[in-house]
Amino acid sequence: MIVCCFAALGIPQSKLFAQAKLVEKVSQKGEEVIIPYEKYVLPNGLTVLIHEDHSDPIVHVDVTYHVGSAREEINKSGFAHFFEHMMFQGSDNVGDEQHFKIITEAGGTLNGTTNRDRTNYFETVPANQLEKMLWLESDRMGFLLDAVTQEKFEVQRATVKNERGQRYDNQPYGLVREFAAKNLYSYGHPYSWLTIGYIEDLNRVNVQDLKNFFLRWYGPNNAVLTIGGDVNPKQALKWVEQYFGSIPKGPEVKTVTMPAPVLEKDRYVSFTDNYAKLPMLQVIFPTTPQFSKDEPALDCLSEIIGQGKNSLLYKNLVKANKAVNAYSYNSTSELAGEFTIAITPYPGQKLSDMENIMRESFNEFEERGVTDKDIETFRGKNEAQIVYQLESVAGKVGQLAAFYTYTGNANYTGTELKRYESVTKEDVMRVYNQYIKGKHAVIVSVLTKTDEDNKAATDNYKVENNNYSAPDYGYDKLTYNKGKDKFDRSKTPKAQQAVIVKAPLYWESKLAGENIKMIGTESNEIPVVNILINLKGGKFLDAPEKTGTAALFAAMMNEDTRNYSSEAFELALKKLGSSINISVGNDDIKVMLRSLDKNLDAALSLLKERLLAPAFHEDDFERNKKRTIENIKNSANIPANVASIVYNSLLMGADNPIGKPVNGFEKTVNNIELSDIQEYYQNSFSKNDMEVVVVGSISEKEIKSKLGFLTELPDNKIQFPELPAAPIVTKEQVYFVDIPGAAQSEFRIGYASNLKYDATGDFYKSGIMNYPLGGAFNSRLNLYLREEKGWTYGARSGFSGDQYSGSYSFSAGIKASATDSALSDILRILNDYKTNGISAEELAFTKNSLTQSEARNYETGFQKAGFLNKIQTYNLDKNFTEKQNEILNKMTIQETNSFVKKYLPSQNKLVVLIVGDKATLADKIKEKGFEIVEVDKEGNLM
Asked: Do domains 267-447 and 734-934 have the same CATH topology?
């Protein structure tokens, strides 16, 4: 139900504040899918949406500016994203590095994101911190530019370059989207570059460009402020009026529309990927913008063509053992859409053949048509997705903000659901004929360094910049006008009365007298049930020469059953809007089920089939084994993956299963036979010591009556082998893995602490000790390496532990040229903390942050399930969180520093690993006084 009103809100208003007008009120009526909210508009044009939800003592604040990389100028790409970084660097009344510190200390989490069309800034905090969040967001909206310095500008420019290196330049296939966009859109089109931008463009921008960008696009009239959660709307609105009301309106921002790209022919283009082990074919058809009438039908078409085991591309390429991966997706943005097909073939396959099979699949689709099952499955999956997004206040706030930004109507959830429910078979065939059949595409061949001739066809297109005329972006005559407040903005608002945080009430039981432990909590916020099942087993049971057996077993458990093909099984799940996933850990096999409560019985029937009736067919096994091997090979070209694999081996020892990758090595997977999978199911897949977690809209009595089939599993006693002790480090040396030409160096530094997990003992207290060193954004390590030096996108350290072992580790991706300096500085910072310990300010920050952050721990079903799973696995007391808070609040500097001395190792006890370009780095590292020991990508000495 919607009530519209253009009168001012009928409550007393202080004359100090700009009055907001109530424009719209949306309320829940019956069982309609809706997000209730109130909409206000301030005189300066700021739109405010307030959603009231008292289910958890938290609030989520989102400020979305309708500006992304599509507003950038040619040759100044990446600026919207760069500016996002600058918005966290302080403003008139918020000091350098204080934005993160204030929110983290308040127990909150925060971030910002940029895409082609919008930039948003958001934080989730305990409800008593709302006023402080509004003060922070308003200060950078209206009072940013005088706090910008050249030094901040340079550091964040370096940080963005490192982000590009980590996410794009240093990854297999990381540059495919950038290359495709450049060749799909015309020169100067704002979608012809990615949001991250080009390095050369980042190098040419200056501080004045930043100020112009802020003044042009960051006015309140180009933003929507959305507040959701445990709020009093009247009080929240008063604070909004106070803190945002004085900010002057910015220049007018007009909506941009552009025609879809017109391709005069198929554009064949290619490039060589520095890291890819296998080639890739990517085909992009231009389609239609988001929220168009054709978008849902194109999404349905992409599922039929290339999503999941029922798709044509899976059948004709993956199941036929011609490709490791083959999929399609329809992505839409504000100005255009792209229907993309991506195929990664096995070695020896030609990209030209992949294109031919793709086109044959189109022909098959035309003959096959669209079935009633296709439509039913599509509708069921999308209904569930929309409901799942309503689980968290962040999800609901994000939907409101996005819908308003792109459609002008925040009350769009029901409309979105109807759009997808209304898709017909005729719609899908129509969009296929309109956008795909016989239409031209950009066809990208991604080549490997060992096979640069494997192109789908000879390149026939080159980007031209003839006749380009840059638009007027409106940067002339911009002035910075600060608002004039009648209150002291320099004073940080105090938090309101502390929120009351309660861990979920839960029940514990055993299933039918069996050795199957159950724990659960009933939650009726959304009609969803989550079930997590842990079966004892996992990687620890792998024979050394067959490491990867448990992982391959888990993959096979997602294949055919006795009564369903894997395709039919997936189809049945999608129709229900449910999911069943089986994965492997060190000591367990995890089974996760998620379902709408109305479909739970049908989903559980499928789970029973999955667990009790696997088929283990030879062709499924050979396909999964082959794909696993190729994925292992490809991961060996991702520096971050290599670093993690080698580091674990060096840390725990090559003979310790903890030190081995869960998927195994190429040589060990080659040793696995189908009989090993069958034997694993017969002897190592057991109800004995099973643990079950249930969270959702169902009672203990109801769920126990539905899970009786679990008692039908084998009752084998699972025994783990004795784990060898971790190696002892005896001297300072740097282990090095060579990745020629690496844009960044991956660092892993640490030691095997043997500090096993505990909730209230040394493990917990050591985590407190590490928090200001490397556990928070504004930790010593991250502030120095990222915010002061600009060498990394992020650096962190921390303790990890379970029932078997523990370790302390530092990790970061560091720009290559700073590798040697960073190594010295990391060790210096660790040594300084060990020598001098924590400061009083750091301990106070840690206590505030960790205590208040508990308010965010129990909101979603997955969060509740994780909390209960920990209680179950480690047999924790019901009040362990209360004990943790008591311990935390009593921690003194002396006690904290005793843990620094005890558990932060000396430099000569550390495993130090660097994965990077040996040719440019080895001599520099040696000059710093370090011995280099070269190892291969599996951690073996060379």
From this structure: yes
